[in-house]
């Protein structure tokens, strides 16, 4: 019996269709049992459990060469979806006529609203298979996070980490924000991709100061890595904190780790005050209150902590539709491009990276990283082609875009949208997008014959609950499609 991690891609392709289908649905049924036993995973999130790393390794082994309200993730994706990543085609792709027969009755459903757009692409080749108004720009809502994530991965690589540092200042120390919104002040968490800890940074800083014979210091905090306004264009609200290079726990004022929550209005100052309190607990006398400033050039580093790798941040962003991390990813892309890390600079840098990836960017407008801004305008064609590019063995750096997608009926923002009897449950992975009057869905599905397809459906004018039901049926239709 081969190791579970290999998945024996060749066997999968050559097995009779009925046998492949039996294995696929058996795996999904087995996964449902894992949900009950995965309490730790559910609590920590799949990016903390190590299972997402295993999933990335499994995907790599197959290579021949919002504003939304977020649900707590359960378990990572169903293995059959991964079987298509980087594998040779298991069967000929669906035809346009076959897809039209399956999709067009659903696309005409008035629940979707006044305007609809659709694109389906063969993930193995990038060949467009079906389109309906696919080149027209729509408001994407949170599906724009796919573009943000791909741009960041292309610019920095999946192993990149964001540092938060403490350096020597002229009359004390400076806490320098690097732009990691997942930096946490909470007690340490377990897991290979746990967030950077402000407590550990305080430990290291206190030790370094005491080693120098210093038990008293002044604390300044530096947010100069980011530029421009900190407030999102939609204003302060429970979906996103002010965007600043220094914050802890995404500026949340409760103990949640994703979803809506009251946010700090000055997350950088609050982070610095928390750091000062942690230093005092460790025997360092911090003078007065903290103040904003800028670290001197070539300042001596005293201590540092690093975020989880960018791959894990991308997965967390997409699974939970995390607005704060998405805006940080956009700004990290701007920094990599030498552009100002502002809303405007990040938007330009993300667009430039999409162009360099050879994606259809004519006419699009990226206004933010999270999709909360209705000024965002992208096409279904762009989203579907982006997902296909992430499955391309020539772009392994983009693979976290796929492994981070919520799994229908099991994780993230799709956990509650596919019932136990839904046909696409476990076979569809997709990023959701929801604003008032805007409902979108973009992801991947494995067809009934084992072919991996990328899809994007965009709508304007429908109500959320009714439109989402039809969008889920559209994705299910793709998953169930032989369509020839």
What distinguishing features does this structure have?
5-stranded mixed sheet, alpha+beta, 2 domains, 5-stranded antiparallel sheet, Peptidase_S13, 484 residues, Beta-lactamase, 37% helix, D-tyrosyl-trna(Tyr) Deacylase, Chain: A
Radius of gyration: 23 Å
Number of helices: 16
Order of helices and strands: HHHHHHHEEEHEEHEHEEHHHEHHEEEH
Main pleated-sheet profile: 5 strands, antiparallel
Helix content: 25-40%
Give the percentage of residues in beta strands.
15-25%
Strand numbers in spatial order across the main sheet: 2-1-12-11-10
Spatial separation of the terminal alpha carbons: 35 Å
**What is the CATH class designation of the largest domain?**
Alpha Beta
Uncertain ranges? 1-51, 53-67, 69-88
Name given to the CATH homologous superfamily of the largest domain? DD-peptidase/beta-lactamase superfamily
Number of strands: 12
Indicate the overall shape.
elongated
What number of domains? 2
Mean pLDDT: 84
- Which class best fits the helix and strand makeup? alpha+beta
Biased composition (Low complexity): 80-89
Family: Belongs to the peptidase S13 family.
Pfam families: Peptidase_S13
GO molecular function: carboxypeptidase activity
